[in-house]
């Protein structure tokens, strides 16, 4: 495989603005951001997005709408009179994108391929808009390992299903490895906030490794998919092995999110709530209202962080 070296943020952050590491995208040329139905010729991206400092991603369109509403009340930001919150990507039905002051709240769908497409287009959007100093968050759900359901896990390192800390992609017929390191200072700041803020005291928050898989069922050692070619003891041996390796949760996007943050030269953090303990079962069986409540936990923590850091940016 081809190993991509650590990238130099210097290049990416030339003149403070987010630069693209793609020489084929030329200044002033037409660039259509197809899956979010925006473009640098059809929209005044600078006017619409230049003030963006935080990009918050999460799987579900409804949850990201709810987060946008929550941000409006937390940050005391009003959207233009009479308009309400508008899905700016409404020309496409792939993703939703809301803007609340300097924060974008965007859905990424499920799995790496879906997140990857969105991430490319968001980075180009921020570049065309002339944004600088942008921080990314993924607010997600996951299966926990050996921790109380409803806990938060802040990812210190994302690994693939083989415990390797990079995303491997077939590019031009060869495997290319993109390292998936996350910003440790940002992760520590989030952890400290979770441990001190009264709003986050009703549950535990951990810093740990996150395993990112290509599938929810066999990819995550479940026994309850439509197909299964292994035994319960094989499953438990695997889950215990990865737990001993420091994995605290399993989900399906962190690897791509982390490696793309690194490639784009932006700070990023992954904050996921755990919906169950995978050492105890496979099915997500808690009542709907409890799951809804848990899914607001990453939102609360990230909104607190944003609130604290808005002034300083
Ligand atoms: C967490 O939840 C989804 C699967 O249920 C997936 O997008 C993920 O990472
Ligand atoms: N999301 C996942 O990817 N896995 C789980 O077990 C729960 C949510």
UniProtKB/TrEMBL annotation:
Substrate binds at residues 220, 222. GO terms for cellular component: cytosol. PROSITE patterns: PNP_UDP_1. Pathway: Pyrimidine metabolism; UMP biosynthesis via salvage pathway; uracil from uridine (phosphorylase route): step 1/1. It catalyses: uridine + phosphate = alpha-D-ribose 1-phosphate + uracil. The keyword Transferase applies. Residues 53-306 form the Nucleoside phosphorylase domain. Its EC number is 2.4.2.3. Coiled coil: none annotated. Keywords: Glycosyltransferase, Transferase. CDD domains: UP_hUPP-like. The keyword Glycosyltransferase applies. NCBIfam families: euk_UDPppase. Belongs to the PNP/UDP phosphorylase family. This is Uridine phosphorylase.
